Amino acid sequence: MLLSMETLKADEEVEAIMRMSERSIEALGYTEHSRRHSTIVSRWSGDILRGLGKSEEIVRLGEIAGYLHDIGNCINRQDHAMSGANLAYNIVRRLGLSCSQAAEIMAAIGNHDEQFGLPVSDISSALIIADKADVHKSRVKKNIENVLRANIHDRVNLAAERSYLETDKEKGTITLFIEIDTSLCSVMDYFEIYFSRMRLSRKAAEFLGCKFSLVINGNSLV
Predict the structure, then answer these.
(1) Rounded mean pLDDT of 144-153?
(2) Nearest to 95 by CA among 14, 197, 178
(3) In this structure, which topology does domain 5-220 adopt according to CATH?
(4) b/e map of 180-189 (b: 16 or more CB within 10 Å)?
(5) If we measure between CA atoms, which residue out of 101, 151, 109 comes closest to residue 126?
(6) Above 80 in pLDDT, residue 103?
(7) Which range has highest mean pLDDT (8-17, 18-27, 72-81)?
(8) Is the terminal CB of the chain with fewer CB neighbours within 10 Å at N or C?
């Protein structure tokens, strides 16, 4: 029987590491990487894999990897994908996953960051796309008095009213839809900070046998 998401989220060790990760990211002034982000990435990873007709085991492993993908921030933001992968392997083994299942999760988490990551499996590909898709104003936790003077990363997130993914197995497409308030940032601002992430998302979609598309304010850009 596969590890349930309820059991994973209720685990004392997971909860402690998630709390510390959130505190560390907040102290560094980064955008939100809390349980909100982890829950969304978990759900979207599963949605992508399910939408492409993958097995329920692969879907669940994708959901688990999505929930745990940023726990390495508990140790340090630098190389958090690598440290998080090692932490996750030990956690899911303790919670009953097989060595091969735990290795799938470890590989996915270790490859989710755009600096060094690459799609190496279906699970890692879904995780990459889901993680990079989560852009939203609620992720900015700093009190920003003048949005136009904020750094570009905060400004882009503040401008994002909504983002969501759609997977179409028949058409072979994975599409990211974003609604942006262009009075706060331009579409070019978005591309300035997200270009490397969209490029990695395209590679991940290709690994899954799909084309990655980006639609901003109803306009298809990729």
Answers:
(1) 59
(2) 14
(3) Hypothetical protein af1432 (1.10.3210)
(4) beeebbebeb
(5) 109
(6) yes
(7) 8-17
(8) N
**Is the confidence at residue 183, as pLDDT, over 90?**
no
Indicate the domain borders of the chain.
5-220
Length of the chain: 222
| Token couple for 81 | 């994908």
Q: Which residues contact 212 (CB under 8 A, 6 or more apart)?
A: 129, 173, 174, 175, 176, 198, 201, 202, 204, 205, 206, 222
Hey, CA dihedral for 138, 23, 79, 37, is it positive or negative?
Answer: negative
Per the listing, tokens 């996953």 go with: 97
* Structural element, H or E, at residue 161: strand 160-168
- 204: tokens are 């991940």
b (16+ CB within 10 A) / e for 100-135: ebbbbbbbbbbbbbbeebebbbbbbbbbbbbbbbbb
Which residue blocks in the chain are alpha helix, DSSP H?
A: 5-10, 12-28, 35-51, 56-68, 80-94, 99-110, 122-133, 152-159, 187-207
pLDDT digits (tens, 9 = 90+) for 106-121: 999 999 998 889 999 9
Amino acid (one-letter) located at 35: R
Crossing angle of helices 56-68 and 80-94, rounded to 10°:
130
Tell me the pLDDT band of 46, cut-offs 50, 70 and 90. very high
